[in-house]
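Exercise 7.
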Amino acid sequence: TYIIVGKSDSPLLAECEALAELVETETRNIKVKTVMKYPEDWDAFARKVCDSFGFKTSACPFVFTSDGQMIGDTQAFSTHIQTKFGIKVNLAREQIMKRTEQNLSLIHISEPTRRYAISYAVFCLKKKKTT
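Solution. The predicted structure, written as tokens, is:
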């Protein structure tokens, strides 16, 4: 299992998420969890995660495994996935920005209504039909 943590407004987080979706689709046993934080909450959260696992990074986003192995930033994750699984993703800037906007929308929807901190969240979106 890979864990991606990052700021909700980060296009690099959106890129990691797209790569993660490909990995989950193309492999049977690999799962990826994403943790998004508001930009103003990022520094404290990242320090807490890094201190817990002994990581030394300031990258946003960063990726690590559930057993505590640091993979690194977006580029390191992309290289790791390409080397290990032969999977590469090339997203257009428009796709990355659209996903970033969706992340911001999702975190704004979830934050005011929850009572406790979210570790992982799964959201299902239906595309609105236009008439």
